[in-house]
């Protein structure tokens, strides 16, 4: 019986079928996750995550990206949602503000563990809650404007922003000064009130005692201080007797001064200690209550932080896409249906002009230093990199895989880009699952892969006694164990490292196994026999890395549907191998496989020549179209120029003839006219010239501004100086440039009006002095003055004429003689300044300026103020230096008629009346 029992106890228990399936499924899933993690490292996914970390806006987003913790969709729907978030963020004009959001997860965890939080930690929680709520409100606002932003708003659905907790913290703590407010509790308010009264009594007592000690010569100056947390006074050691019953709390380093607590202050100090301890205890109670509130909200806060992190990643992905000129990928059905994905049409993988993002980094604008701390404004919204044309490096490649294709065999030379192209496809597939844009053209299309498994690199392990070949086989075996119909398999140099015949046989068997169990498998090889599989089975596809036979260098481009040679002999020759060695090797190649080698070489050369010829035809056609377009453009341009020039010349001749006639008539009438007839003669000439101006005016030219209509006073025989920049007085160029020169010609009429006016008070000359031009009047003949003014640029002469004419003609001053003309400037007729009203345009503010700066600004303001205007000078009520300097300038300035001192209703301001 005992033997039987022992027998049954030692029998192994047969596991049930369901338990066995569960255990096998768990093992397979664990193995798949392990292989997936290794593949991500092989494809350099952590480096891409590190690249994206520069675009995050929060400290927790930066840390997570640096640790390669970017979310990767576990289902096609999750990847589609991540892509929608990226697209919504990409459409934003500016990124949202993440300022104030901190990683408070450790703080919340500490509070949940029962630890007492500090004021700084509690305030960090408050700022984070407030900033997260502001971010949600901002996304809500922009989502109301357009539904395309809704995927960003969806991130914060079901979030609790803990507004009540935020209000409690704000009620109890002043986070600006990191102090607990009196209103936090009634006990704290009472304690602080009592402490304040006690401290006032203690301070008053000690000040009185210290003054008595000072008057008695016991100290150089009254001194009240704190020693050993008690208030005391300073006293010389020799005068210690002045404080009978006092307690010595401390002694100075020299021993000459004692810090003593007077007997009368002992009770008050004791009370201060008790109240201080009570205050601290009450503050600890308040902090404990707030810490408990935060601990109770642990799950809500952590969920909110996760959503903020998700939004940060979405914005970072969009910024990264802008930086690398990325485009949104399209999910194709890719060999499996009914999962809500778009059908790719004729291709399951259709990627045009994709570039490796890590290789692309060297060609784009450099990223900010990733070691710097992240702030709310650290999102790099790079629009400068946006371009429709790809950068020349790295070389863009096309990846085209038909829906029925399951295995792609890529052949070609070493260093030709086979491995880099395969890695680019794998990395693009991971980026799609993570919701990232791809650095490609048009609309890259590829399936969603559940597992992306790669065997790239050397898997040699001395510890596990694995050679390079054994390491590759071990990893491929594991990959075959977990692969599914939705998987992408990448194998580099399949079957290498062993006998070529056995390697080809094993590789062929592996590919036959894969084509029925994967979505797509991409392998690279130097075995030409693997390229022959396409002839037997349409599920295979060949591709070759292009190699230039002229330069003996790879072009890094993929030729789909072609097979490539290793070109080992060409490469050996290019790097300097002995020609005899290369020739002998070529002889062996012909002996070993003469038919295949020659045929492959012929097909490859034919394919390359056809591609070259096609590109040459397209280039010649484009050049011909461009040449014809430019010739037509230049012919039309010359015709329009000739026609416009003829029209301009005809109008200029007509204007010159009209102006000459007015000048001749004016000179004839001047010889016989009396002084009394001068005004009528001037008005008649001005009317005639005005009609010509209106007929040929150029409306697009800007009019003379009010600031330019400066006032000018001229007296016969006297010198009047006006500041004009040299750039405003240049020789008039008689070059006609379409319609613009019509305007220059017509403005000569205004110059002539000025000439006519100056005829009776003298001409002028323009000597240059220190970079400025000074206008001076002098006696001269009429023709000489006209000739001189016609050589001056119209703008300056026009301004001078308008100022002169406004003063002598528009104001009604009749000029009867040269004597009356000279006396006209002394007319003391009262000028009406209208309603004196202060505005921003007639005010100059001199407050806060030094005297030199204020004087310069005041002189400038007076010079640009229009005629018969009022200027308000604000000088303030300070020391009065600026005010005195300003009024001194007003007394002496020739344009200031008078000025009014400040009044009780207008302190600090002086009003000046300008001629």
Automatic annotation (TrEMBL):
SUPFAM superfamilies per record: DNA repair protein MutS, domain III (SSF48334), P-loop containing nucleoside triphosphate hydrolases (SSF52540), SMR domain-like (SSF160443)
UniProt key word RNA-binding: yes
Keywords per UniProt: ATP-binding, DNA-binding, Hydrolase, Nucleotide-binding, RNA-binding, rRNA-binding
GO BP term (any one): negative regulation of DNA recombination
Residues annotated as domain Smr: 844-915
UniProt superkingdom: Eukaryota
Any GO MF annotation of the entry: ATP-dependent DNA damage sensor activity
Coiled-coil zones: none
InterPro entries xref list: DNA_mismatch_repair_MutS_C, DNA_mismatch_repair_MutS_core, DNA_mismatch_repair_MutS_sf, MutS, MutS2, P-loop_NTPase, Smr_dom, Smr_dom_sf
NCBIfam families xrefs: mutS2
Protein's UniProt name: Smr domain-containing protein
UniProt source species: Centaurea solstitialis (yellow star-thistle)
């Amino acid at each position: 019986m005992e033997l039987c029992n022992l027998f049954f106890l030692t029998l192994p228990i047969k596991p049930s079928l369901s338990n066995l399936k569960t255990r096998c499924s768990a093992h397979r899933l664990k193995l798949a996750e392990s292989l997936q993690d290794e593949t991500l490292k092989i494809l350099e996914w952590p480096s891409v995550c590190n690249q994206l970390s520069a675009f995050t806006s929060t400290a927790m987003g930066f840390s997570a990206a640096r640790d390669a913790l970017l979310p990767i969709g576990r289902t096609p729907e999750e990847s589609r949602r991540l892509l929608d978030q990226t697209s919504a963020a990409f459409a934003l004009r500016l990124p949202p503000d993440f300022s104030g959001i901190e990683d408070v997860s450790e703080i919340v965890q500490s509070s949940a563990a029962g630890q007492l939080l500090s004021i700084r930690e509690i305030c960090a929680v408050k700022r984070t809650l407030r900033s997260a709520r502001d971010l949600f409100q901002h996304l809500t606002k922009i989502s109301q404007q357009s539904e395309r932003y809704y995927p960003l708003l969806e991130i914060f659905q079901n979030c609790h922003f803990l507004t009540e907790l935020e209000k409690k913290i704000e009620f109890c703590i002043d986070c600006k000064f990191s102090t607990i407010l009196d209103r936090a509790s009634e006990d704290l308010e009472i304690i602080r009130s009592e402490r304040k009264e006690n401290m006032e009594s203690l301070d008053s007592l000690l000040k009185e005692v210290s003054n008595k000690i000072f008057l008695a010569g016991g100290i150089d100056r009254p001194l009240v201080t704190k020693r050993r947390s008690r208030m005391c006074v300073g006293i010389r050691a020799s005068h210690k007797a002045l404080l009978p019953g006092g307690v010595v709390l401390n002694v100075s380093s020299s021993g000459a001064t004692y810090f003593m607590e007077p007997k009368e202050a002992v009770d008050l100090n004791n009370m201060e200690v008790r109240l201080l301890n009570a205050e601290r205890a009450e503050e600890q109670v308040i902090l404990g209550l707030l810490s408990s509130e935060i601990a109770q909200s642990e799950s809500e806060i952590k969920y909110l932080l996760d959503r903020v992190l998700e939004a940060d990643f979405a914005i970072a992905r969009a910024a990264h896409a802008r930086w690398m000129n990325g485009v949104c990928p399209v999910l194709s059905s890719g060999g499996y249906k009914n999962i809500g994905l778009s059908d790719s049409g004729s291709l399951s993988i259709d990627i045009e002009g994709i570039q490796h993002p890590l290789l692309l980094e060297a060609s784009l604008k450099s990223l900010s230093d990733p070691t710097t701390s992240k702030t709310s404004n650290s999102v790099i919204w790079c629009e400068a990199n946006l371009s429709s044309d790809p950068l020349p490096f790295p070389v863009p490649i096309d990846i085209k895989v038909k829906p029925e294709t399951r295995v792609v065999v890529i052949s070609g030379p070493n260093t030709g880009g086979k491995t880099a192209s395969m890695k680019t496809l794998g990395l693009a597939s991971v980026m799609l699952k993570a919701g990232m844009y791809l650095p490609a053209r048009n609309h890259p299309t590829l399936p969603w892969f559940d597992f992306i498994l790669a065997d790239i690199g050397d898997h040699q392990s001395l510890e596990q006694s694995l050679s390079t070949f054994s390491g590759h086989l071990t990893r491929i075996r594991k990959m075959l164990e977990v692969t599914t119909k939705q998987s992408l398999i990448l194998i580099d140099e399949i079957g290498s490292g062993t006998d070529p015949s056995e390697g080809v046989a094993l590789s062929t068997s592996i590919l036959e196994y894969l084509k029925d169990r994967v979505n797509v498998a991409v392998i690279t090889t130097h075995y030409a026999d693997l390229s022959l599989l396409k002839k037997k089975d349409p599920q295979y596809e060949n591709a070759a890395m292009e190699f230039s036979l002229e330069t003996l260098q790879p072009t890094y481009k993929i030729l789909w549907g072609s097979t490539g040679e290793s070109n080992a002999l060409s490469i050996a020759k290019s790097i300097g191998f002995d020609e005899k060695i290369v020739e002998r090797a070529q002889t062996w190649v012909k002996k070993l496989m003469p038919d295949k080698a020659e045929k492959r070489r012929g097909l490859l050369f034919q394919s390359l020549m056809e591609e070259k010829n096609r590109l040459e035809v397209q280039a010649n056609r484009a050049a011909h179209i461009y040449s014809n377009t430019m010739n037509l453009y230049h012919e039309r341009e010359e015709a329009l120029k000739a026609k416009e020039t003829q029209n301009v010349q005809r109008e200029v001749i007509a204007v010159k003839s009209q102006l000459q006639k007015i000048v001749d008539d004016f000179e004839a009438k001047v010889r016989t006219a009396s002084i009394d007839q001068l005004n009528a003669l001037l008005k008649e000439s001005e009317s005639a010239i005005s009609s010509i101006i209106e007929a040929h005016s150029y409306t697009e030219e800007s009019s003379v501004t009010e600031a330019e209509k400066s006032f000018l006073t001229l007296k016969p025989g006297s010198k009047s100086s006006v500041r004009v920049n040299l750039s405003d007085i240049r020789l008039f160029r008689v070059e006609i440039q379409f319609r613009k020169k019509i305007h220059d010609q017509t403005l000569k009429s205004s110059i002539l009006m000025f000439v006519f006016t100056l005829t009776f008070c003298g001409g002028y000359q323009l000597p240059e002095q220190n970079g400025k031009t000074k206008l001076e009047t002098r006696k001269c003949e009429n023709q000489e003055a006209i000739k001189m003014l016609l050589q001056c640029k119209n703008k300056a002469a026009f301004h001078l004429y308008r100022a002169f004419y406004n003063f002598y003609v528009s104001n009604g001053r009749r000029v009867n003689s040269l004597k009356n003309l000279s006396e006209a400037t002394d007319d003391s007729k009262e000028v009406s300044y209208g309603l004196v009203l202060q505005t921003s345009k007639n005010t100059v503010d001199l407050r806060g300026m030094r005297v030199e700066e204020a004087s310069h600004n005041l002189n400038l303001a007076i010079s640009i103020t229009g005629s018969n205007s009022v200027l308000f000078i604000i000088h303030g009520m300070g020391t009065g230096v600026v005010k005195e300097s300003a009024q001194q300038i007003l007394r002496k300035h020739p344009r200031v008629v008078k000025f009014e001192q400040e009044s009780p209703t207008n302190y600090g301001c002086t009003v000046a009346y300008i001629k």
